[in-house]
Design a protein that fits this description.
globular, alpha/beta, five-stranded mixed β-sheet, 30 helices
């Protein structure tokens, strides 16, 4: 493999795109620098370390503060958390600030300093909210913080405070200033910490035996300085340059000392001041991200290639960085998002999982129509989500003016993801008619590493969907994603979602409003199915149930959404979004520019297949009566195997079958119309449709009875908008054609198609070409979102038997990627079955 650790001189190109293309083509089969490889192994090893929660969070409540507004107390809580969390930096890292430490301490386990009074907690509970009801699934305005810094941001808040009208505006703006102080304190406390750590580094013997503390030993390779004002003899300090292959003199301890001092200088500047260099921009963005995570906000990162690239380009053009040094910086930055990861075994030690399971069982028994998709949660779902923290990023796509947005940072971020082979950040890429061929090839090479990353978003249908809701084309072009795959407008959106189990809606239609699992009456009885005189009547009644649940859920969301501000405001996040400061209200108080509630439709492929089977077997062929179909489902096909077999042979979505696809298009259109009708009722928020399951396809299935497509009761459903297991009859091309014909340009939130390919299909350069053709076909046919997991069933089985040999084997979990060996046995078996069927 070709090493990329040597220093290269980068000539300034007239076109940045040309540099991006050349670099993309040069890094084929490259490997990370030694220090990055060492850091990767350190993170993997740390996943197995026994954790202890950092619990010194205290309380902000005392005789003086109890009378203050709750919003002020929440800001004080955020500030106190950030003032007390220990500073830190991992061995060999250049970026300071940790969620988790080498020593095994977990910095945040949903612990904020106490700030709410009992009566406030009780009031919040009336609306279904608690002190940790920060929903996440939002992306802050990172470009703003890099451009302004917190000093200028605080100045803006103070200027707005001078014109505030009423106590509520004054309270919020004061709270925003308090939260900014917390962020600044967190960054500044790293300055002396890093300088003290630097003094501990061994500098005399050159043997590399540095201090073994969190910030001690340095990795091999050259020092990577801040590039401006750091002094000393760093490669890039003071504008000096080093020839091809040169190394800085001195021991690794001396190098580490230099790096730590440079890191201290950077922390003295950002995020307080605007970023000036690539490394400063990365550190500033990281400080904001980790501070929000530490205060309970699990958030996405938007489009980092767009907000980091100007600093990257400037450093390369000035000679402050070589391109390979820049890649090393990017690798280390991307690695930071994995420091928090820990194994399922380690996670199992942190909570009483029996209590968690008992709460889930109680929740199932007491479920209401407003619960998430009526799915049957299990402790397994929490355990399987061990390493998912909503840390999504999107690269590529187009700029606000419509031009191609692929740049050198896009290339480097994608390369880092390929090199690291980890699960965070969750990588996605946008493509359109302007996306260069060479970038498609790099996407294909990244996909070959497995794990279902990057997810592929096609711009055109998503932009069409957004603009149909009145969003300007310029704003729509800036879309990214949030918690799993849901599309949002970063820095400008408050987002919440609920899920509707479409397959359950058919179950209620056939079972007179009752659940097949426990016979609970859940929706009104729409009559005896034997009296349904036509397929159209059946379809209308099923969609009547869909509309009923959508109306109930949307009304509930509209009722509860504004009341988060009563118990779970987020002043730090609010100041980093478009709208709250201008309006003088916390983001939870309906102040962001876009307030979007997603209604996510589950079980779509099974609903299509079930309706297609009933139409064919009952209303077209007359082979069975509705009463026989209902009896077969009621008995979970026990004694009715002949009917189940006939159902399995009926038309299926995902096979490019016109009969099934016609039904799918009708459901998607009518569901979109239902949600649009709901959205038109509200002036201050939008309701938008999505189609998907996220990672809960097992739980959704466990809460759903047998279905008319031949699926047995409580069996998993297909992930997202993927064909059901066993429907891979005509290959992935047929699946893409079915999916793309569904009219999904009415679905702004998204509707992922999850595909799986075996490794031998994509071997060699021919395999790259095959993947490129697949990606382009998806774009050209009008698909909006697709994931491709490349793994062999034999590999999954081997990993289950010998997990230590497959630590970096990843699989797609519906909205994120997970280490296969960390999943529950049930989830592992499910992925093996999906791999055998061709869908992941």
């Amino acid at each position: 493999m070709r090493e990329t650790t040597r220093v290269e001189t980068v000539s300034v190109k007239a076109s940045v795109m040309e540099s991006a293309r050349e670099y993309s083509e040069r890094i084929i089969d490259s490997s990370p620098a030694t220090r990055v490889s060492d850091a990767i192994e350190a993170v993997r090893d740390a996943m197995e370390v026994r954790r202890s929660s950092y619990s010194d969070v205290g309380s902000v409540l005392n005789d003086e503060t109890r009378g203050l507004p709750m919003l002020i107390r929440k800001a004080m809580s955020e500030r106190q958390k950030l003032e007390r969390v220990p500073p830190g930096i991992w061995d060999g890292q250049i970026f300071a600030g940790c969620h988790t430490y080498n020593s095994g301490t977990l910095a945040n386990d949903h612990a904020l300093p106490e700030f709410a009074l009992p009566e406030e907690i009780e009031e919040g509970a009336r609306y279904g909210h608690g002190i940790y009801s920060m929903f996440g699934h939002i992306s802050p305005d990172y470009p703003r913080i890099l451009r302004m810094g917190t000093t200028a941001l605080a100045k803006t808040v103070k200027e707005r405070l001078a014109t505030a009208e009423g106590d509520e505006q004054v309270t919020f703006l004061k709270a925003a200033l308090i939260s900014i102080e917390g962020l600044e304190s967190y960054a500044k406390r790293h300055v002396q910490y890093l300088r003290d750590l630097a003094e501990q580094c061994t500098t005399g013997d050159g043997d590399g035996d540095d201090d073994d503390s969190d910030g001690g030993s340095g990795g091999s390779g050259d020092s990577i300085g801040s590039g401006i004002g750091s002094g000393g003899d760093s490669i890039i300090s003071g504008g000096s340059s080093v020839g091809d292959g040169d190394r800085i003199g001195g021991s690794s301890g001396a190098r580490r000392r230099r790096e730590l001092l440079e890191a201290a200088d950077i922390c003295e500047r950002v995020p307080m001041q605007p970023a000036r260099t690539f490394r400063e921009a990365c550190q500033s963005a990281w400080f904001v991200h980790v501070a929000l995570q530490l205060t309970g906000n699990h958030l996405a990162l938007g489009r980092p290639d767009q907000y980091l690239n100007p600093y990257l380009e400037a450093d390369l053009s000035s000679g402050r960085l070589t391109i390979d040094q820049a890649q090393e910086i990017m690798d280390l930055w991307m690695l930071k998002f994995n420091e928090r990861a820990f194994s399922s075994q380690t996670k199992s030690e942190l909570r009483d999982w029996q209590v968690v399971q008992e709460n889930y069982e109680r929740r199932w028994r007491e479920r209401t129509i407003h619960d998430h998709g009526q799915q049957r949660y299990n402790v397994r779902d929490d355990m399987d989500a061990t390493i998912h923290y909503n840390q999504n990023i999107v690269i590529g796509g187009c700029k606000r003016d419509g031009s191609d947005a692929v740049n050198l940072a896009s290339v480097m971020i994608l390369e880092s993801s390929r090199r690291l082979r980890m699960t965070n950040p969750v990588m996605s890429a946008r493509v359109n008619e302007h996306t260069p061929d060479w970038f498609f090839r790099q996407l294909a090479r990244a996909l070959k590493t497995g794990g279902g990353m990057p997810a592929i978003y096609s711009d055109k249908p998503i932009l069409n969907a957004y603009t149909s809701y009145g969003v300007s084309l310029e704003d729509a072009r800036d879309f990214a994603n949030n918690g799993c795959w849901e599309c949002i407008l970063p820095g400008r959106t408050d987002f919440y979602f609920q899920k509707i189990n479409g397959l359950k809606c058919l179950e209620w239609t056939l079972n007179r409003g009752r659940c097949h699992i426990d016979d609970k009456q859940e929706v009104p009885d729409l009559g005896d199915p034997s009296d349904f005189g036509s397929f159209d009547v059946l379809l209308d009644k099923c969609l009547h149930n869909v509309a009923y649940v959508a109306d109930e859920m949307s009304a509930h969301m509209a009722w509860m959404h504004p009341h988060r501000s009563s118990i779970a405001p987020t002043p730090l996040l609010s100041v980093l979004l478009d709208g709250p400061v201008e309006k003088g209200r916390d983001m939870t108080d309906m102040s962001t520019r876009f307030i979007v509630n997603g209604l996510i439709f589950e079980g779509m492929s099974h609903l299509i297949d079930s309706l297609a089977a009933i139409r064919q077997l009952v209303f077209r062929e007359g082979r069975y009566s509705m009463a026989e179909i209902v009896d077969a489902i009621d008995h979970d096909f026990d004694g009715y195997e002949h009917i189940q077999s006939a159902m399995l042979d009926c038309p299926k979505y995902g096979t490019n079958n016109a009969q099934a696809d016609d039904i799918g298009r009708e459901i998607v259109k009518r569901y979109s119309d239902i949600v649009r009708r709901i959205s038109d009722k509200y002036d201050d928020m939008m309701f938008m449709p999505g189609i998907g399951t996220f990672s809960w396809y097992i739980a959704v299935g466990e809460g759903t009875g047998a279905s008319a497509d031949g699926r047995n009761a409580a069996m998993p459903i297909a992930s997202n908008f993927s064909p059901s297991a066993g429907a891979m009859l005509k290959g992935v091309t047929a699946a893409i054609r079915s999916f793309s014909s569904m009219g999904i340009d009415t679905i702004p939130i998204g509707s992922p198609l999850d595909l799986g390919l075996s490794g031998n299909v994509v071997d060699g350069e021919e395999g790259v070409n095959r993947l490129v053709g697949l990606l382009k076909s998806f774009r050209d046919l009008g698909g909006n979102l697709m994931t491709i997991t490349i793994v062999d069933t034999e590999t999954l089985r081997a990993a289950r038997e010998n997990p230590s040999a497959y630590r970096d084997l990843r699989v797609r979990m519906g909205g994120w990627s997970a280490y296969f060996t960390m999943l529950s046995p049930e989830q592992q078996e499910h992925h093996i079955r999906k791999s055998e069927s061709g869908f992941m």
